[in-house]
Design brief:
single chain, alpha/beta, Rossmann fold, five-stranded mixed β-barrel
Length: about 270
């Protein structure tokens, strides 16, 4: 059984051990790009290059099987067309699972320990802009962390002014000039937001609401990674539409948009 990213384990030591196991299992000394593929984005892993190794998450220290349907349960080492390697993390831990913020940040910290320079974080989320129909990809320009937690501990002061890379967003716009950008608000979940909470988020400046990404992005910046965030609008947020929310709707929207957004992400990765 794999080790859990618990409060009694140094999170960076655990990430180094996870990276060491990845090197032993794959023979790859450095994965330059890492991707966490959320709902709807999984098909990109098959388009960015050749999968050379796929390892069950439970065999890597600190990782566990995903608790959410629609997420994979492996870590994949993929050889890109330019000869570099990418690490696809299909075992995201969500804050609402109750395993602590260290477990949430473990994926990006493992990526950094495995030699990554770039962290791509994707998700499926609710949209506050009625123009964004389900299936619309949106670049994350900034975020609002509404979890009341941070992956950083102690006197660890990190500048988040330009957390989501302008350089990589510009590359994404080269691939698809029609891509919109927005501010993502992370709620704790697992319940969906109420209409009043969505109105609050909009007043605060949010365009997108979900249950992941922001905590991981903070940890990625602290680890020195350049961050690209991309959301798939899987549904209009509560109160924006009269329709009730369900996880089945999220999965359906992700499946419908999957081929198109996966191709988009693969084309972006090819330019990094």
């Amino acid at each position: 059984m794999t080790e859990n990213a618990t409060a009694c384990t140094d999170p960076f030591d655990l990430a180094r051990r996870a990276a060491d196991v990845l090197r032993e299992r794959t023979g790859v000394q450095r994965h330059r790009i890492a991707l966490t593929l959320g709902s709807g984005w999984g098909g990109a892993a098959d388009l960015i290059g050749e999968t050379e190794h796929e390892i069950p998450a439970t065999e890597i220290p600190g990782f566990s099987a995903p608790a959410l349907q629609g997420h994979g349960g492996t870590l994949r080492s993929i050889r890109l067309t330019n000869g570099d390697h990418a690490l696809v993390i299909g075992a995201r831990t969500h804050f609402y699972e109750g395993k602590g913020v260290r477990a949430v940040a473990h994926g990006v910290r493992t990526a950094a320990a495995a030699g990554a320079e770039i962290m791509i974080l994707t998700n499926g989320c609710g949209g506050l802009n009625p123009v964004w129909a389900p299936g619309t990809p949106v670049l994350i320009r900034d975020h609002i962390n509404l979890t009341a937690h941070s992956p950083l501990e102690g006197a660890t002061f990190v500048d988040l002014t330009d957390l989501y890379s302008r350089r990589m967003r510009d590359i994404a716009h080269q691939v698809d000039p029609g891509l919109d950008e927005g501010v993502y608000a992370q709620f704790t979940g697992p319940h969906y937001e109420t209409p009043a909470e969505v109105r609050m988020a909009k007043v605060l400046g949010a365009d997108l609401v979900g249950m992941s990404t922001a905590l991981e992005a903070i940890a990625a910046r602290h680890a020195g990674l350049e961050v690209l965030g991309m959301s798939l609008v899987t549904n209009l947020a509560a109160g924006i539409s009269d329709e009730p929310l369900s996880h089945e709707e999220v999965l359906e929207a992700g499946q419908a948009a999957g081929p198109r957004i996966s191709r988009l992400l693969a084309d972006v990765v090819a330019k990094l």
